[in-house]
Write a structure and sequence with these properties.
Number of helices: 12
Strand content: 5-15%
CATH class: Alpha Beta
Keywords: Oxidoreductase
Largest sheet: 8 strands, parallel, barrel
Helix content: 25-40%
Protein name: General stress protein 69
EC number: 1.1.1.-
Organism: Rubripirellula tenax
Number of strands: 10
GO molecular function: oxidoreductase activity
Structural class: alpha/beta
Shape: globular
Number of domains: 1
Strand order of the largest sheet: 3-4-5-6-7-8-9-10
């Protein structure tokens, strides 16, 4: 497993990280024994970065991670997230930070993160979403800075709001975040326009999420695939979204065949390697909930990089599809 620096001042982290949403719940049936086995296998295979959040099973994901970490001798970095207080997701332009990320709320929520993870200090605390409306008065981030001085937090980050990822650019330039977490994949390539160059300019660590587009870019779904109602993906791929997605994934498969790598690389490998091709990217977190998924996603690090010609060809899959997290359009 190769490692990369998490920004200028951050530690070396595995270039494939463990995305721990599904082990908390919300992605259909999942038992803890399987989750624990997956976590241990990931660490065995060199993964030293795990990403979780308060909202992943109301802290269940964090508690499982803590249970595993305490049995391991390896140094593993755990990143978690604090959501805003109840209200629109992502916050609307009319939301006040005082109502969503007040100092009292942040301190209480972060105390719960510390308790769930069984630690006195969080390696990385990320605000789970943001709005550009707070950029000129970013008091929540100043609260996190104070908590870092108190020894409660290591690195400070923001996970981008899906509808306005570029809202973090000002935060990077103002030196308010050490790390950003962004959506970047074969379909969503907009971060190359400004987010990634500014991250390089400011020495900000970059965590990539949704690199497999919630599993679709692994090429494992048919056009008529239907998820159970208790699975997050039943909403993500609502309406005709699955059919449209599979049509585009088939074109990526054709590119892999054209470049003669389809026997060596799975479509998941291609998708992860595409995200890792950018030097600004510190780690790509892939959702993992079974040993088989861990083995598939971690093997990617051992494969040679995609050729420049193929990376140029893959740019054509950038898809202006809007945001799929609400509604069916």
């Amino acid at each position: 497993m190769h490692t990369r620096p998490l920004g200028t001042d951050g530690p070396q982290v595995s270039e494939i990280g463990f995305g721990a949403w599904a082990i908390g719940g919300g992605w259909g049936d999942q038992d803890d024994t399987t989750s624990i086995r997956a976590l241990n296998t990931a660490i065995d295979r060199g993964v030293n970065f795990i990403d979780t959040a308060a909202g992943y099973g109301d802290g269940h994901s964090e508690r499982l991670i803590a249970e595993v970490i305490k049995t391991r001798k390896e140094s593993v970095m755990v990143a978690t997230k604090t959501p805003p207080a109840p209200g629109p997701w992502p916050p609307s332009p009319y939301c006040r930070w005082q109502d969503r990320y007040s100092a009292a709320y942040l301190r209480d929520n972060i105390h719960q993160r510390l308790t769930n993870l069984g630690t006195d200090r969080l390696d990385l605390l990320q605000l789970h979403t943001w709005t550009r409306a707070w950029n000129d008065d970013p008091q929540p981030l100043l609260v996190l800075r104070q908590m870092r001085e108190e020894g409660k937090i290591g690195l400070i980050g923001v996970s981008t709001p899906e509808q306005d990822q570029s809202s973090v650019i000002q935060l990077m330039r103002d030196g308010l975040v050490d790390v950003i977490q962004i959506i970047y994949n074969l379909f969503q390539q907009e971060p190359v326009a400004q987010i990634l160059p500014v991250a390089a300019e400011t020495g900000t660590g970059v965590i990539v999420r949704v690199a497999l587009d919630e599993g679709a870019l692994a090429g494992k779904y048919a056009a008529d695939h239907v998820f159970p109602e208790d699975d997050f993906r039943s909403r993500y791929f609502a309406g005709d979204r699955m059919r449209r997605t599979v049509d585009r994934v088939d074109k990526i498969r054709e590119d892999a065949k054209t470049f003669g790598i389809d026997q060596e690389y799975s479509l998941a490998d291609v998708a992860l390697k595409f995200a890792l091709a950018r030097p600004e990217v510190s780690t790509v977190i892939a959702g993992m909930r079974s040993v088989a998924q861990v083995e598939q996603n971690t093997r990617t690090s051992r494969l040679r990089d995609l050729s420049e010609d193929m990376l140029l060809q893959l740019r054509r899959h950038h898809w202006h599809r809007g945001v799929w997290y609400s509604g069916k359009d």
